[in-house]
Please model this.
Amino acid sequence: MNVRAMGPVLVGRSAELAELEGALAAAPGAVLLGGEAGLGKTRLIREFAARLHEPAGAGPRARLLIGGCLELGSDGLPFAPFTTVLRGLVRDIGIDGVAGLVPRGDTGGLARLLPEFGEPESDAASGEERARLFEVVLVLLERLAERGPVVLVIEDAHWADRSTRDLLAFLVRNMGAVPLLIVVTYRTDELHRTHPLRPLLGALERTDRVRRLDLTRLSRTDVGALVADALGSAPAPGLVERIAARSEGNPLFVEALLDDDGTLACELPESLRDLLLAGVQRLPEETQDVLRDASGGGTRIEHALLAAVSGLDDTALTRVLRPAVAANVLVVDGDGYAFRHALIREAVHDDLLPGEYTRLHTRYAQALENDPGLVPSGRLWVELSHHWLAAHDATWALVASWRAAADARKALAYAECLTMLSRVLELWDRVPDAATRIGADHVKVLEEATSAADQAGEYDRGVKLATAALREIEEAEGIGVRAASMLEWRARMRYQLARPGFVEDLRTAVTALDGAPPTALRARVLSTLATYVRLTTDIGQARAAAEESLAIAREMNDVVTEAEALMTLFCADIDYGNDPIQIHEVEEAALRSGNHRVALRYAVIKSHYLEGAGRHEEAEGVARRGKEQAREYGVSRTQGTFLCINQAEPLVSLGRWDEALAVLGHAIEQDPAITIRTSLLVLHGEIALARGDLDTARNRLAGAREVMNLKMKWLKTQDYFATLRLEARMALAEGRHDAVIAAARQVVDQAGLPDDARYAWPVLSLGARACGELGDAAAADLEAIVGRTATLHTGGPLLEAMRLTFVAEAARGRGVLDLAAWDAAAAAWERLGNPYPRAEALTAAAEAALAGGDHDGAAVRLQTATGLAAGLGAAPLGSRIDELRRRVRAPRRAGAEATAPLGLTPREYEVLRLVSEGRSNRDIAEALFISVKTASVHVSNILGKLGVANRGEAAATAHRQRLFATAAVLTEASAQGGSPGGCVH
Model:
């Protein structure tokens, strides 16, 4: 680690230093260090570094790793700061030392960042390989931190390339409980509204253990201290005031304004550029010439490269640069030089005349072509692309960009690969023999750019590139094999964007391959078609496509595609009612494939199936072991995050809510892909709602709705109906019964989707409950909801428990508290081991028993429900149970007078029933064969016991407590000669 020497002493930053010290003490964590250019971010880091190197017992207090982003980074140089960090670490502990820190000692993945580690372990350039690379870097840092505190500093993040930003975000979000501190510096004045670093900073700030530290300008006192230190003596009267006024407290400007003789060097500079150039212009002319040469190489340049560009030998170059180093314009940095501040380099470079600019970058390009070893391996072609483009040489800029794209792809830096390929496309028409120069036609470049856009997640750009490629392919050769491949690419990206047309693209691709011999491409296109069509109501086509894909895969002995097709076929016809032989066949195929991506997909499918079959413990175990496999394969933060859904869902079912929240919280922190975010948010929101945390539930529902707004085109049942389920539960908790029914209507209208019953039953049950609250006004909706259940397949104990719950809810929707139905539902949930729905069913059963006068039966059910709700922390359900328990009379002693609910006597209970029917005192007297005066006395007693002011409030209380619903509706049902819940079956 080489700490640059700085000029003046650090002043006015004691609070910021203390903040960094505190962050290290509290590690793991991250600090986002921002400030205007010139405020001293780099100087602060160097002072912090010096403190870290102060001995603490046997050695330094912490290991410091520093990597800086290059201004060239936005031009396509990927992972620049991490390459620097790795190179420094290799110097410190050697390649074997690094190998001892990574999983299985396999450094092949790191070869994508640093050639010293050999060749990458795989030539594949996929999102999966990129995820494994990120995981290896994280494990390396974590294991290094286990040996002692580590501080990783990423400087000048405003220049960071996309891949560096992605890796940085991954590390901050995922670092474990080790003493690792990540510090990110950036210029706040560079962050315009659309700057790509802005959203990353905002997202990281919302992450736990991340703090933001903004440098401010120096006070007048601090400016005085800085001036005094620079002069070595007390400044002349008035000098500090003038410098403070001109510099506005910016340390860089303070130094630039101060001349060696203790006066203002530029009392009235015309511009900031003039101020920054003032120190350069005081240097000898030959030194200024070399500084102009150095400015073309970025903020840092190797001594050998500068010698080659300037044409000076080592001795002459050292002599010419010595005044610049003495004047603190340049600083020595390892085997090269760096401008003391990037603003100085920018000012020098911008001061070049047009001809000087072109000639300078031509010399850089020629020097690098003559001796590629002048820059670190991996930077050659992107540097050449940059310099030839700046030199206005389109031919060699195109060639270098094509080669740079290949390097970026090998490094899994897909966004930078796309940048370079986009440059090739932009330059194409300016180079007449472009195809000959790079050995690829224009369509090939479009294909490569489409692939890079897909891997980079730039789906919108990818769809446009694929469309352009298809246009050229169709004009040249029609719709054939090449077009089919591109159509499949476009379909997958349209699917990711939730845009229409993805199924049509795949159907066209299949048609294009009709009549051709079976190929891996056709098998893959059919498998993809089956997967996507399975999300619609056309299950038959999904099944047919999967079966043909399977047949081709077996004919070609393609075990990976065979396993994929079997899994898609299984999902198309999933049946929770038995343990089909097919699931074992899928398992054997997945194991036979030897492909960990297939193995992990199987873990997802099997755990999903087991949960749907009500085998919660088994489902949780499969998902948990799948996550362990994902970690072993180095993809725990991608495929492992997906498996978090399938682990959390059975934990929720089993009532192990705290464990589920830990799993969900970790997964949500990973900023998961849009395709899995909804389920995580819904499960988290449902637990929060059941525990009475409405604010969190609303927040999670809002997030799920936002995702659904993007995904409505494909209506994935697991996401769509689950979001409606949370929406209905929230509306029910808030008493918005119309909103509950509105959610149920959407399920009624969307019949025939895959896995329909598993996700439709709960929403329809909630809708039926809301219909009961609204009474006759919702009768038509209730009938539509009941009618929809006729389309639902019921297989397996979980779906049967859901059906039984609906039967009871539908009866309640018609005003009948069906004790037998609720007892059946409660028993079904008990057999499955689902405590929350069991407690809900027991509570409703107790309410039904109470309405029928069975106080002892109600008490027994409520006692069990109380224990279940308390164990879950389900406070709202507990409150409802407590309210019912207050209505239950104490067990009657032998010979004691009978009582009715609410402390009423049996006669008063009968009077209240008639009052709730709107009867007058005279009507009551006639019905009960008592005098009008006696009826009046009973009514007065009832009002007193209920604590209400009039007959209307008494009737409302009876209605709210559902005291007489059963009798009233059963009488009506008997008159009609039908069973309220019979149509459900």
